[in-house]
């Protein structure tokens, strides 16, 4: 549900006249409705039509035209003036947790994690599970994940802070659950509230086998492109510079959208990704050459052992 009333109050208190609106891909179709509501309130409106996957990619070019940018769907990952964040909340019925209770009761504590859409419910989820005999706990987040229990594909701080014996991820798909499992190295379960509601224990083994294959392939690479994102909340310049210093034929590439065609055109044998960590883990199949995470690059160069494999996170 998108509630614009609070945003309108904030816009008026800032004396905003021109408002730019940025929506993530899943909510782009709300653009006409949001624009009509804001125009009715007397604002001039500009919609950002570019792809957007997170608050790490603020439409700062749209903000050049506007007094305020309203970024819908996410909580902030960076501090920017003149941006109002409007997270998207989606309630889940707590009864879907019933199937998870027998398995979760086996653990002395279970850390609850979820994505932004459901993070407003973590306390209620915790209480419901406790009432049903599961010692559910929630960890505090980080500057990129301000809500308790909230995780992103680039930050699992709230899972680690929960210090639980096992974890439950509630949300769509298993990518975040695998991330929790890699970040905590603890048994992790996933419950998709919009699929069949069946609890599944996730395993990172398949992903790790694929990453191992890419690491082996990259060992024969002669040239490495170190990808440095120009997006507002993805650029890790210090990391990119450190990685570029590890190999004589490594060079930093400043890039915004990372596509197969661009990487082919640039012509490096392998790439090291310091942009969104999901790129190397989730999108490798799009690329014909290895796209490594920072720790994987260190393994390729013999500066880290496979046993020290660590999931890439953007730390505050
Ligand atoms: Fe999401 Fe990636 Fe941006 Fe993190 S860096 S907020 S995982 S799109």
What does it look like?
By secondary structure, this protein is α/β, with parallel strands linked by helices. It has twelve helices and 13 strands. It has helices at residues 5-13, 31-40, 60-65, 101-104, 122-131, 157-162, 175-184, 205-218, 237-244, 260-266, 278-282, 294-300, and strands at 18-22, 44-48, 68-72, 83-86, 110-114, 136-137, 166-170, 188-191, 200-201, 224-229, 250-255, 270-273, 291-292. The strands form three sheets. Strands 6-5-7-8-9 form a five-stranded mixed beta sheet, with helices on both faces. A four-stranded parallel beta sheet has the order 2-1-3-4. A four-stranded parallel beta sheet has the order 11-10-12-13. Helix 9 (237-244) links the parallel strand 10 (224-229) and strand 11. Helix 8 (205-218) crosses helix 12. The longest helix has 14 residues, at 205-218. The chain is flat and about 60 Å long. The two termini are 29 Å apart. It binds iron/sulfur cluster. Iron/sulfur cluster binds at residues 53-54, 56, 77, 152-154, 234, 276, 278, 314.
